[in-house]
Amino acid sequence: MTVPNMLQITSLLSAYRAGTLTPTNMVHDVIARIDAYTTKDPAVWISRVSAEKLLARAAELEKETATDLPLYGIPFAVKDNINVAGLPTTAACPAFAYYPQESAEVVQRLEAAGAIVIGKTNLDQFATGLVGMRSPYGQPHCVFNPEYVSGGSSSGSAVAVSAGLVSFALGTDTAGSGRVPAAFNNIVGLKPSRGALSTYGLVPACESLDCISVFAGSTADAWEVEHIAAAPDARAPYSRTLDARPLPLTTFRFGVLKKEDQFFDGNTANAALYARAIHLLEQIGGTPVELDFAPLKETAALLYSGPFVVERLAAIKDFYSNHRQDMDPTVGSIIDGAKNYTATDVFEGIYRQHSLQQVAQRMWADFDIMLLPTAPRIVTKQEVMEQPIAANSLLGAYTNFVNLLDMAACAVPAGFAPDGLPFGVTFIAPAFTDKDLAALAGRFHNALDEAIGAARTDKLASKADDNTPPHGRVLLAVVGAHLKGFPLHWQLEQEHAVLRSTTRTAPDYRLFALPNATPPKPGLVREQGFKGNGLEVEVYELDAAGFGRFVASVPQPMSIGRITLEDGQEVCGFLCSEAVARSGADITETGGWRYYMQTR
């Protein structure tokens, strides 16, 4: 069997059970993948299980029957603030490192189900951060652009899944660390209800809020891992039984941000992608309801701008007292702030937290789930170096309140901006709705129909081959009023056109909003020497006769010519008289007609 780019659990189990793949084959493949990827990004792993031990583990599994173990031979990674026997736990601080006598409870449960621990992944030191830049072991980067952060604090775990190095990875989530890296790397991040997964064997950040989280390529995989790992544990002080609560799955109401509460830090493409996500969730049975974000925003401020930072000091007080100089400067400065609060401040913060929980609880009468952006936008590494606190705060705008208000959350991909960077949304619901929340988020993710993880890059690279139409059929790219959901799309439907892909043009095209056009439509112009980010187009396949009828109906100043796509392929498409096009407004920076129409 050729092992797929993304190591999803179902496909690997099918291959094991069919006898076309063995754990030994899988171990060899994973080792080769990691070695190859390390040349691109050497900061993903802090420590790895030796090849000899991995092969011994594989041989041990091969004595078992694949059908008897739900995670038979499935490779996974563990964030390096979670204990794995035989490997050091560093929490990304070498002076803190120790060798645990036993693995964390969740790791033991996953290994008992047949999974194979590959190694320990990088993180923001002591799980303090959302950027993935606060580690002496290096800074993993976004799989789509090395100039951008991977997101943190579970940086290495998210990259390991997105790059196809493991099937799933354990992270942790106190303020969004299991969700932000998922969004920045085009994968799923499932944050369980607090206490559903035992924190025994976890180096705490804020023990009353910490959750061990799951990164995977699909919500089905993430839920399977959570389901296997979840169990009450008397050794973990905040452990709870996952007493499932149902959500409506066919028709449901979902809370969305009011226009005045939508904050994307100037990123109009992400604003449009959020609008598209709302529309897509409507199409699969949801009814949007505007929510009051003010109490959620106030709750979020308690975590870093309030007395809850004291809990971060409590988690490592002895180490902090003796080794403050050995800590990352930014992490150290954050924990230094704990000394500014009194016990009275802490209790007042707890009282305010519980008051806000009451407000939030009443919100669920208006809707069943929330749909929020996972983060306003991704940031560059340079931005973090210049403004380490401000850049980090930006990323927590829509995540920090969730654990304080005792909610479950599932972050899923929601498309790509014209610059090729990913955007994500998060499904949020009351505690113990984990299973149904993952199912709803999965319906959205499946409807999005995007390649997952870094595999999207491979999909784009192969589109030229994929888009070669059969003999007698034509590919046509549309950029404006013929897009799905727009006024002239019916002309494609009447010719039985089939959508083959949503992609972008080559970077040297500009888009203009044509003046006085009815219905509104754009004009596409190619400009030699111009270098933008490309413009979104939908590529349809239709038969030659239908294409001929369609072309005959195209009015001036439009014409059909050849358009070059971002992968270099040429297809038929709409072009416009340059003089007419340039008499309208240049809307190239919006990334496409759909984004322009949603944000104007």
Quickly give the structural class. alpha+beta
* Uncertain ranges: none
Look at the structure and give the CATH class of the largest domain.
Alpha Beta
- Which fold name is given in CATH as the topology of the largest domain? Amidase signature (AS) enzymes
- Total strands: 19
The helicity comes to 25-40%
Number of helices: 23
Q: How much beta, percentage-wise? A: 15-25%
Rounded mean pLDDT score: 93
Shape: globular
Spatial separation of the terminal alpha carbons: 50 Å
Major sheet: 11 strands, mixed
CATH architecture of the largest domain: Alpha-Beta Complex
Going by CATH, the homologous superfamily of the largest domain would be: Amidase signature (AS) domain
* Main sheet strand line-up: 1-3-2-4-6-5-10-11-9-7-8
The radius of gyration computed from the alpha-carbon positions, rounded to a whole number of angstroms, is 25 Å
Count of separate structural domains: 2
